[in-house]
Design brief:
By secondary structure, this protein is α+β, with helices and mostly antiparallel strands. It is 56% helix and 19% strand. The chain has 20 helices and 17 strands. It has helices at residues 35-45, 73-81, 114-121, 130-137, 142-149, 153-181, 183-199, 206-218, 220-235, 243-257, 265-288, 296-316, 320-338, 340-386, 426-429, 432-447, 466-479, 492-495, 522-534, 540-555, and strands spanning 2-10, 13-19, 24-29, 61-69, 90-98, 103-107, 110-112, 126-128, 236-237, 240-241, 393-404, 407-416, 424-425, 454-458, 484-488, 500-509, 512-520. Helix 8 packs antiparallel against helix 12.
């Protein structure tokens, strides 16, 4: 349950902190005192949307901290799976909104995202406000209540898995059929690409080799002179000895000297090594001198080959590697085209099979929904009759639709609040007071079907008075036996049933508005019940009535 809430710099609330009890907690206060801000704060700590505009004027940030206690074993395990540990079996959630629009969330002091905050608090806090009333007016939302009442989430998920597979098969089939129409054109294009690249007999690295050969041919005369110079330096000419001969003589002389000067042994060995190494290096140089005479035709052939490679690279992108990859891709696509007819037939068969499965699953789901809808309507009618709507007729109209992601059902709530009137669409006839009671009845009907720990009602008694208001208070009190109930109300009949009564009061200090929250006990609470029940001038009779109402609430 929500055991405490701390609010700082949220709209007109500069700072407020209060505790809540198990059972039924009520908030009262004059219009504009800030009751809606409390709902916004609770929505914020459960991961709902909140904007920087709500930060109190002059402040840099707003902070809301909620403490949840009595965490169920199932929820505690779920929290641990997210990597958070409970402290003294409590969950402390903090959300900070800055003027820069940043949302900073913390769970038991550790950072969290808004989505994680929303996931963790799901089922811990269920807030009913004005948007929930609008959901009743939108027939598209009604089927969700039926599914929740029947706990049909598993069936819906199983159906949707098949439905999604069917849609994927249909999309793939459509694309394959469209490709089939362009198959001849695409085949011609791919075959041309394959023939063009294959006939070139291209290999990776060929371009660099050709450029090197071209450079050699273009510089043949210069290279011939360089090889001649190297040969003369190594082997010598008619009138001079070459480097190899001189090195050999030097090594021979040094080896002779070793007989007399042993300390020259290493020097002699090194000279001999230098000779052999120089001889080997010259051998490599000589190996590059083919002595071949090049003719212009060879150069033209190389230039033509380089031009072909360059054209292919420009056409198919990148270098030789990319051209060869383009060839492989074209070959794969051509193979796919050749097998397209077989694949289309497979997809057609698969689509028919999945469609049949989806229709069967949708029919099973539809039957369960219809059965659930009857029980749901009975439960809601029972709740409504208790809430002073004895002649109400509440039914669920079901229509079959085309298959969608949620099945083949459209369900709409129909209601007749007056004797002799046939049930009609809720959006057309339900008044504000009736809508409040219908929503409360639906919430109560769903109460045993979910594991909500705290239910929050924002002025669920709007448009209601007298006996009906008393019944709403009694029903909220009854609902609080198995879970915590929090209600913002403007009716004395409802407030009198509260186990804890908190007053929201707007005060002015130094020309600025402040909202503060007070816990009411004893005569303070009596005066507040009398105020909201009878106006500003409170008489002794009104006070006595308030005491009786509180006594009745305690008895119930």
């Amino acid at each position: 349950m929500l055991s405490s809430l701390y609010i700082q710099n949220l709209a007109v609330i500069e700072k407020a902190e209060f505790e809540l009890k198990e059972g039924f907690n009520v908030f009262t206060g004059e219009t504009g005192a800030g009751k809606t801000i409390l709902i916004n704060a609770m929505n914020a700590v459960s991961g709902g949307r909140i904007y920087k505009d709500i930060i109190r004027n002059g402040a840099e940030k707003a902070v809301i901290t909620a403490t949840f206690s009595g965490i169920s074993e199932k929820k505690a395990k779920e929290i641990e799976e997210y990597g958070y540990e409970l402290e003294d079996d409590e969950l402390i959630v903090t959300r900070t909104i800055t003027l820069e629009g940043k949302n900073i969330c913390r769970i038991n002091g550790q950072p969290a995202t808004v989505s994680v905050l929303r996931d963790i608090t799901q089922g811990m806090l269920d807030i009913y406000g004005q948007h929930d009333g609008r959901a009743l007016l939108d027939a598209q939302e009604h089927i969700g209540f039926i599914d929740s009442y029947g706990a049909l989430e598993g069936e819906i998920e199983g159906y949707k898995e098949i439905y999604d597979a069917m849609k994927n098969a249909a999309r793939e089939l459509k694309k394959a059929e469209e490709d089939e129409q362009d198959k001849d054109r695409l085949r011609d294009m791919l075959e041309y690409r394959i023939n063009e690249i294959s006939s070139a007999n291209l290999r990776e690295g060929e371009k660099d080799e050709l450029i090197r050969q071209r450079d050699i041919i273009k510089n043949a005369e210069k290279l011939e002179g360089l090889f001649a110079q190297a040969r003369a330096a190594a082997l010598g000419e008619d009138d001079s000895a070459g480097a190899l001969s001189e090195l050999s003589n030097l090594a021979d002389s040094t080896e002779e000297l070793v007989r007399y000067y042993p300390e020259l042994e290493k020097c002699a060995e090194r000279l001999r090594e230098i000779y052999y190494e120089t001889e080997e290096l010259y051998s490599d140089i000589r190996g590059c001198d083919s002595g071949e005479e090049y003719n212009p035709a060879q150069l033209d052939a190389i230039e033509d080959r380089l031009e072909l490679i360059s054209r292919l690279e420009k056409k198919y992108g990148g270098g030789e590697k990319e051209v060869l990859e383009s060839l492989e891709e074209a070959q794969r696509k051509l193979e796919d085209i050749e097998g397209a007819e077989e694949r289309i037939e497979e997809l057609r068969t698969e689509k028919v099979r999945l469609l049949k499965m989806a229709e069967e699953k949708a029919e099973e789901l539809s039957q369960k929904r219809k059965s659930t809808a009857e029980k749901f309507a009975e439960a809601v009618v029972e709740e409504l009759r208790f809430l002073d709507m004895p002649s109400v007729i509440f039914t669920v109209r079901a229509e079959e639709t085309e298959l969608t992601a949620t099945g083949k059902d459209f369900m709409e709530f129909m209601i007749s609040a007056n004797p002799g009137e046939p049930p009609r669409a809720m959006a057309k006839i339900a008044s504000g007071g009736e809508m409040s009671r219908i929503m409360l009845s639906i919430k109560n009907a769903l109460a045993d079907k979910d594991e909500i720990e705290t239910m929050v009602f924002d002025e669920v008694d709007t448009g209601v008075s007298g006996k009906a208001a008393h019944k709403i208070g009694k029903k909220l009190k009854s609902a609080s036996k198995n879970r915590q109930v929090i209600c913002v109300t403007h009716l004395a009949q409802v407030a009198a049933f509260g186990d804890r009564h908190l007053l929201i009061r707007k005060e002015t200090e130094e020309g600025r508005a402040f909202t503060r929250i007070y816990s009411l006990e004893g005569e303070e609470r009596v005066h507040e019940i009398a105020r909201i029940g009878g106006g500003e001038k409170i008489t002794e009779t009104q006070l006595q009535n308030a005491r009786e109402m509180l006594e009745t609430g305690r008895e119930k």
